[in-house]
TrEMBL record:
Protein residues bound to ATP: G223, A224, P225, G226, T227, G228, K229, T230
UniProt protein name: AAA family ATPase
Keyword Electron transport appears in the UniProt entry: no
UvrD-like helicase ATP-binding domain segment(s): 202-546
Keyword list, A-Z: ATP-binding, Helicase, Hydrolase, Nucleotide-binding
Species annotation: Streptomyces halobius
Domain of life: Bacteria
PROSITE patterns (UniProt xref): UVRD_HELICASE_ATP_BIND
């Protein structure tokens, strides 16, 4: 294998490649510090026309200074590409080659010559995709190994040398050149302490294709556990911001995660890549127009989340429109101008047929009435202008007609009425919801007001839908939706509104759907999002979960997602895996013993249990003097054990996982399929090892005698 832990001499007789690379690293860090110092020394006092412009420019300068911070604990560059000739120039006899160092950001020297190339630049792409079958103009690709920010090793792959072998797995058999890279395996298997890391140094070819997909279309990624789908989505945001900086700076980008713990876990990835302005939110944050203080039974939440509710709400909003029964008479000076009721009705129906937002149509109606008056003025020989039309639109008689015919709608009050008034709900849901479904979502004791109502998460989504029916929701340039399989159709619509004129990256795993309304197909999801033509990509090759662990968890797939391809793992290390059956009275003791064994290893530890078991386990840990963190709290060298309720495990990862009582995790869900999917999520959280401790029998899908 072409790995050089003790490198051989290069073309400089008095040095070694490793010494030369370390010198380039030191020079690059020095150049980065100079770039930051230049940014800090900028004086914008005399280059702006106003204090507003000065504030904006200073904000951009401050962001530039922050982005140029030298993160000494991370590699400034992680690879080098040696081209046969300068990129973009045809190979000719005597043409000089060119070398590029690939890193997380661009660094140049005092003359402006690049010392490190941003990984998103076109010239960097061969680092991820070149092969001996298609060298993409390269003669050599070098990967660097680091420890604490210090360059310690390198590996070379000579892409034009057919005699060079890459270990037991020739490169020609696979596009994933990292499969036979010791440094790549070391980086993948490096213990995890703290938040999620970027994968910019380890992106594989199939991941890179998704990352660099154009902004013109949306992409849906079905990713098995450990395939890096979340990281791929975040790196795609970073790539799009690099490629379409001005466009996305105007329209905005957003990452949507399932919960706050998950967002905290991933929040350092984009800043590490130099992207500081991407906002993060949960779906609940997006629709947070009311205080959520209540919860729904699963049946009610399922109906409220059904896409049919969109039509119920549309009808409810439209029900406020009434046809005029009286003419509109506008008095101006000594003249009276009359618009008959039938003509007013025509104007109202025309606006209704255009399907524009309720508030926009309401604003347009007085102008339409005023125009009808102006037509009569012109027919009488007058010559009114736009100012006259605006004055007529503001006339008291016109305002009275608009108020009576097209009254304002308060979205929260409308939803309150819909869920409180059985007759109103029946009128709007006729032919859409059954009588039983209507009864399911009606409040048993209607609240008196919007403020006193104990709104649920599903209610907030209904209010958000109604708000969009009244006034259009602003669209962003790009939205990343992670753990998308768990959303209801109405939640998909809420997300889709935020990228109606932009693009989206949808990430998820149908096998990990753990809500009663979890999606069964991505086609259905994309239709609700308003992105039916999105490309669907499947990632099945895992880089995180050990082989034995993913094989054990995959026994559940026939029961929870029979159409999905079983995931495989390229991990060279088999990892630790053990299933321990114990007596019921010994369960807590056995779990603590497994945690002690895991803590003897390096890295983070996750103790995952059914939500109902968490209080007892926390008490047992406290009695034993073992400090545990809650999900979202950052691990450190002195505090590495996190007690994780099963419902919050999704998206998180730990070096070692101790899984408490699988049967309790399954039983904690409203139905078996959801319970088995929740268990699948929990089983696939480890990076290095998994110990399953159980007193009750294992689910039969796992082979109870295991």
């Amino acid at each position: 294998m072409p790995s050089h832990a003790h490198p051989s001499p290069d073309h400089r007789p008095s040095s070694t490649p490793l010494r030369a690379e370390r010198a380039h690293l030191a020079a690059s860090r020095s150049a980065l510090r100079a770039m930051r110092k230049d940014a800090e020394s900028l004086n914008i006092a005399d280059v702006t026309a106003s204090w507003v412009n000065a504030e904006v420019l200073q904000g951009e300068v401050d962001a530039r200074i922050k982005a140029l911070a030298d993160l000494t604990h991370t590699a400034l560059f992680f690879g080098r590409l040696d081209y046969l000739h300068a990129p973009g120039i045809d190979l000719a006899e005597g043409a000089a080659g060119e070398n590029f160092y690939i890193g997380r950001r661009h660094v140049h020297d005092a003359d402006g010559d690049p010392m490190v190339i941003d990984w998103r630049a076109p010239v960097s792409q061969p680092f991820y995709r070149a092969s001996k079958k298609d060298p993409m103009g390269l003669k050599l690709r070098r990967r660097f190994g680091y420890s604490g920010g210090e360059l310690t090793a390198y590996e070379d792959e000579h892409l034009t040398d057919p005699a060079e072998a890459w270990g037991h797995l020739p490169f020609e058999r696979s596009r994933e050149w990292g499969k036979s890279s010791r440094l790549l395996q070391s980086e993948i298997e490096r213990p995890r302490v703290g938040p999620m890391r970027d994968i910019v140094a380890t992106i594989q070819p199939e991941q890179d294709e998704i990352v660099r997909a154009g902004i013109g279309g949306s992409v849906c990624v079905q990713g098995a556990p450990g395939t890096g789908k979340t990281a791929v989505g975040l790196h795609r945001v970073a790539y799009l911001l690099y490629t379409h900086r001005e466009r996305l700076a105007r329209s905005g980008t957003l990452v949507i995660g399932p919960n706050r713990s998950f967002l905290h876990y991933i929040e350092q990835v984009l800043p590490a890549l130099g992207e500081l302005e991407v906002k993060q939110a949960t779906v609940d944050d997006l629709v947070g127009q009311v205080d959520v203080r209540g919860t729904d039974e699963a049946a009610a939440a399922t109906v409220k989340g059904d896409a049919r509710m969109a039509e119920v709400l549309r009808r409810a909003v439209r029900s406020h429109i009434t046809m005029p029964q009286e003419p509109c008479v506008v008095v101006r000076g000594s003249r009276r101008w009359r618009v008959p009721a039938y003509e007013l009705e025509e104007l109202v129906r025309e606006l209704m047929n255009r399907e524009i937002r309720y508030a926009a149509a309401r604003e347009a109606l007085p102008q339409r009435i005023a125009h009808a008056v102006l037509v009569r003025m012109e027919q009488a020989g007058e010559a009114p202008d736009d100012r006259v039309q605006d004055a007529v639109a503001r006339n008291a008689a016109v305002k009275a007609v608009v108020k009576a015919v097209w009254p304002p709608v308060d979205p929260a009050k409308l939803v309150l009425r819909l869920l409180s008034d059985a007759d109103f709900l029946a009128a709007q849901a006729d032919g859409i919801l059954t009588a039983d479904e209507q009864k399911t979502i009606l409040w048993a004791k209607p609240p008196r007001s919007v403020k006193s109502a104990k709104w649920s998460v599903a209610d907030a989504v209904l209010i958000d839908e109604t708000m969009d029916l009244v006034s259009r929701t602003q669209s962003l340039g790009h939205v990343v939706l992670d753990e998308a399989q768990d959303l209801s159709p109405m939640q998909y619509r809420a997300v889709g509104r935020r990228c109606s004129t932009g693009s989206a990256t949808i990430l998820g795993d149908i096998a990990q759907g753990t809500t009663p309304w979890a999606t069964d197909t991505w086609e259905e999801t994309l239709a609700h999002l308003g992105k039916p033509d999105s490309a669907v990509e499947e990632l099945t090759q895992g880089f995180r979960v050990p082989r034995e662990v993913i094989a054990f968890a995959s026994r559940l797939l026939p029961a929870i997602a029979p159409d999905l391809t079983e995931a495989t793992s390229i991990r060279e290390s088999a990892g630790h895996f053990e299933v321990r059956g114990v007596a019921p009275d010994d369960l807590d003791t056995a779990v603590l013993a497994a945690c002690d064994e895991a803590l003897a290893q390096e890295g983070s530890i996750g103790l995952i249990a059914a939500d109902a078991r968490v209080p007892a386990l926390r008490a047992a840990l406290e009695t034993a003097g073992v400090r545990c963190l809650a999900p979202g709290e950052e691990t450190s060298a002195g505090s590495r054990l996190t007690l994780v309720p099963a419902t919050l495990a999704k998206g998180l990862e730990y070096d070692y996982v101790v899984l408490d009582e699988p049967a309790a995790i399954v039983d904690g869900e409203p139905d078996e399929r959801t319970g088995l999917r929740r268990l699948y999520v929990c089983l696939t959280r480890p990076v290095s090892g998994l110990t399953v401790v159980h007193a009750a029998g294992l689910p039969e899908q796992l082979g109870g005698g295991c």
